[in-house]
Amino acid sequence: MAALKLLLDDAFDFDFSLIAIHCSLEDYRLAFMANKYAGLRLKSSKDVDFYIKKLKYSFASFKYDDQKNYQTFTLIANKYKLKQAQRLVTSDLFADSESEHYKTVNLIPEVKNADYLLKIESDNGKSPRLKLLAHLNQIPQIITAYEVEVSALKSKQNLIFE
């Protein structure tokens, strides 16, 4: 009897656009400003959780499903600051002092300077990214917003969270 061999093709099609946003606004303020300037209707959604080496990293996210145009917009934080307590033992006056250090973890390390990412999924083949980029760059608090080439990212699987 002939052996049956199944091949698993690990090449996954990432059919979305990605915009990196550099700004110092809080996540809810950025969502509000994007709604105001770009005409989106982003609403708070469930945080995206990642577990790496028994540590939980939560990235805030906001989502808008445009059912009329078959598009989904997801604004997600790219940075998470993890507080680490460190106990220092020395033989001086201030012995046994504790200090806190923060470790920054990025959702997409290739664009580690970006504070937020806007993921655009479109089922109709049209992506409003150029128009959206123009609107986002008009927001005074945004330093810059630009499109990221998804196929060049090594950690693009982190953007599949549904």
UniProtKB/TrEMBL annotation:
Q: Which organism is it from?
A: Leeuwenhoekiella palythoae
Q: What is this protein called?
A: IPExxxVDY family protein
Kindly list the organism's lineage: Bacteria, Pseudomonadati, Bacteroidota, Flavobacteriia, Flavobacteriales
InterPro entries attached to this UniProt entry: IPExxxVDY_fam
